[in-house]
Amino acid sequence: MENRVAVVTGSSQGIGLEIAKKLAHQGNRVVINSRSAEKIDQIARELQEENLEVVGVGADIQSAEGAKELIDKALEKWGRVDILVNNAGINRDTLFLRMKEEDWTEVIRTNLDGIFHCTKAAIRQMGKNRWGRVINISSIVGLTGNPGQANYSAAKAGIIGFSKTLAREFGGRNITVNVVAPGYIQTEMTDKLSSQIKEQMMERIALKRFGKCEDVANLVSFLASEQAGYITGQVLIIDGGMAL
C-alpha cells in the first residue's frame, strides 16, 4: 500500500482519526479532514512529528464546494486520490415525534449528502487511473434501525444502497466500493451515553466487550489493500456479534 494517497473525512477524532493513523503508518500519504481548519492542522502537525505523510484540510463536506475543495487539495499536494474513506458523520438523536426538520436535514446532509459530494469529486480521477478504493462508514443501525435515530438510521441505510450501486457502476474500472457497519465502538460519541444504556448494549454483544476504534481501522485497512481487490459491494459488519 506504500505511496497510495488516501482521503479520510471526519478524521479529527474517534474512528476517522484511527483510520487515518493506520493508513499513514502503512506508508500511505493521507489527507485528514474536519470542518475546523485550525483543529485539523494541529492534528496533522502532531502526526507529521511521527514522520507520517499527513496533511490537514478544513472543509465542510455537506456542500459540493466543500467536498471539491477537499479533493482538490489532495490532488494539488500529491497528484491523485487512490483511497477515499467516507467517515464524517453526526447524530441528532430524539424520538421521531419530537424530531425537528433541522434534526433530520442536518444529519442527512452530513452523513449521506457528504458521501455523495466527496465520492463525486474523487471517483472520476480513480477511474482514469484504473484503481480505486471507496470505503463508506455506515452503522449497524442502518441495517436494524434504532429507537430515537430515525434520521441517523435512514442516512446509514442510504449509504448501503448508494455503495452497492456504485460497486456495479465502477467495478469495470477496477474500483471497489464497500461498506463498514460498526456496532458499539468506544468513541467520544458513545461515551456520552448513560451507564444504563451501556449495560443494555453489553448484554447484546456476544463477545462481551465494546469495540475499539482500532478494530474498525484494521478492517478499513484491509479493504483498502490489494488483498481485498475481489471484494466489492459488500457490507462488513463489525459489532462483536451484537446483531446476531
How would you describe the overall organization of this protein?
This protein has helices spanning 14-25, 37-48, 64-78, 101-129, 141-144, 150-170, 195-204, 213-223; strands spanning 5-8, 29-34, 54-58, 83-86, 132-137, 175-182, 235-238. The protein is of the alpha/beta class and 244 residues long. The chain has a single domain (5-238), classed as 3-Layer(aba) Sandwich (Rossmann fold), CATH 3.40.50. The protein is globular and about 50 Å long.
Ordered list of secondary-structure elements with their pairings:
Layout: E1 5-8, H1 14-25, E2 29-34, H2 37-48, E3 54-58, H3 64-78, E4 83-86, H4 101-129, E5 132-137, H5 141-144, H6 150-170, E6 175-182, H7 195-204, H8 213-223, E7 235-238
Parallel strand pairs: 1-2, 1-4, 2-3, 4-5, 5-6, 6-7
Helix pairs in contact: 1-8, 3-4, 4-6
Give the biggest beta sheet: 7 strands, parallel
Average pLDDT rating: 96
The total of beta strands comes to: 7
Please provide the ordered H/E string of secondary-structure elements: EHEHEHEHEHHEHHE
What's the number of domains? 1
Shape: globular
How much beta, percentage-wise?
15-25%
Q: What is the CATH class designation?
A: Alpha Beta
Helix proportion of residues, in percent?
40-55%
Which structural category fits the helices and strands?
A: alpha/beta
Rg (CA only)? 17 Å
Secondary structure tally, helices: 8
The appropriate CATH architecture is 3-Layer(aba) Sandwich
Task: Sum up the structure in keywords.
244 residues; alpha/beta; Rossmann fold; 8 helices
